[in-house]
Amino acid sequence: MKAPRLLLAVALLTTSCAIGPVDGGGPYPSKNISILAPGSTGGGWDTRARSIDTALHDCGVTDRAATVTNVPGAGGTIGLAQFVVHTGDPHQLMVMDTVTMLGGIVRNDSPVDLTTLTPIAGLTTSQSAIVVPADSPYRTMADLIAGFRTDPRGTSWVGGSLGGPDHLLAALLARDNGIAPDQLNYVATGGGGEMLTLLLSGTAKVGVATVTEMRGQIEAGELRALAVTGGNRAPRIDAPSLRELGMEHLDLTSVGGVLAPPGLDEQQQREVIDLIRRMRDTPCWRAVLVRNDWTDEWLPGDEFAARIKQHEEMVTTVLKELGLTS
Questions:
Q1: Band of the pLDDT at 191, cuts 50, 70, 90?
Q2: Most exposed of 54, 88, 91, 170 (fewest Cβ within 10 Å)?
Q3: At 24, is the secondary structure helix, strand, or coil?
C-alpha cells in the first residue's frame, strides 16, 4: 500500500505546482493589476487606463483583475509622486502621455521625473482640435489670430493642464503673434466636461482638446473646429490641419503610453511589455483606437525611453523660451 500512497503524494505535489503557489507567484501577472490614471475621471488618462483594462479582459489576455485609480492634480505629478513608492512591483502600472506629464513635471518643479520609472510602451498618438462655440465670430484660424492680436486678454482660452500640449499650443501661437506670455488668458481644466461647460457658457472663447473629447459637440454643431493638429485632417471634421496652414511648429504631438515603477529587473520589464504587446494585438484594442480617434504608435521599452527623453528636452526648451519656467 506504500507505493500507491507515494504516487498519490507525487500527483498532488505535481498538481499544486501546475496551478501555481497560493502566494501569488508564477507567470506574470501572478496577481491583480493596479492601473493609476494621474488625472480626473472621464479625462484622457482615465480613458486610456480603462481602455487597457477592458482590452485585457474582454479579449482574454489575462484573467487577473485590473483596478483603475484616479489621482488628479498638478499635471499628473501628484499621482506620479504616489506611484514611485511601488518600487520593484510589476503589478503597478501608470498611464500617461509624454508632453502633458513632462510639462507638469517642469512647471511644478517635481522632485520625481520620468527617467526614474521603468518604460513599458508608447501606445498611441492623437489629434487635437482648436475649437470655438458655434456662435463665435471666429470662423477661421485667421479670424482667431486677428482677434487674439487685438484683444489678447479678452480672447480667453481653455484646455488641459498647465505646461501640457494644449497650453503650449496656445502659448506658441501667442508668441508668434507678438503677444507676451503674461497676456495669455488660459484656464487649465481637468477634462473635457469642464472644458465644454466653459466653452458653451461663453466663459471661454477658444478651446484646445483632443478630437475625441470634442467630436460629439463638433458633429452636433455646438462647437466649430478651426484647425486640427497633425499632418492630415481628422475624419469627419471639416477643419484644416496645422500643417496645411503652415503652423506645424505649433504641433507638439504627445505619445500616450504605460510606465511601471522604478526597480523592475529586465525580466520583469520584458514580462510587462509582453502583456501590453499581446493586448495591443487584440481586436479589442483595435476597436479602442477607432473609438477614441487614436493612432497606433508602438514604442516598447528603450524606444519609449528615448522618445520620453526627446520630448523632455523639447518641452523644457519651449517652456523656457516662453518664460513659463525658470
A1: low
A2: 88
A3: coil
Show me where the domains of the chain are located: 31-126+253-321, 128-250
Residue 248: φ, ψ to 5°: -65, -20
| Rounded mean pLDDT, 36-59 | 93
CA angle (21 as vertex; 15, 23 as ends), nearest 5: 160
Is 3.40.190.10 the CATH number for 128-250? yes
pLDDT in tens, 80-114: 999 999 999 999 999 999 999 999 999 889 999 99
Asked whether this chain's domains 31-126+253-321 and 128-250 adopt the same fold, the reply is: yes
Query: Are 129 and 217 spatial neighbours (Cβ–Cβ below 8 Å)?
Result: no
Whole-structure pTM value: 0.83
Kindly list the distances between the CA atom of residue 93 and the CA atoms of 35, 65, 262, 273, in Å, as whole numbers in the listed order. 5, 13, 11, 11
- The confidence score (pLDDT) of residue 42 equals 80
* Dist CA 37 CA 129 (whole Å): 23
Cα gap 218→205, rounded to integer Å: 15
- Exposed/middle/buried for residue 290 (C-beta within 10 Å: 0-12, 13-18, 19+): exposed
List CB contacts of 17: < 8 A, sequence separation 6 or more. Answer: none
CA distance 80 to 71: 9
Non-local (6+) Cβ contacts of 213 within 8 A are 44, 191, 192, 195, 196
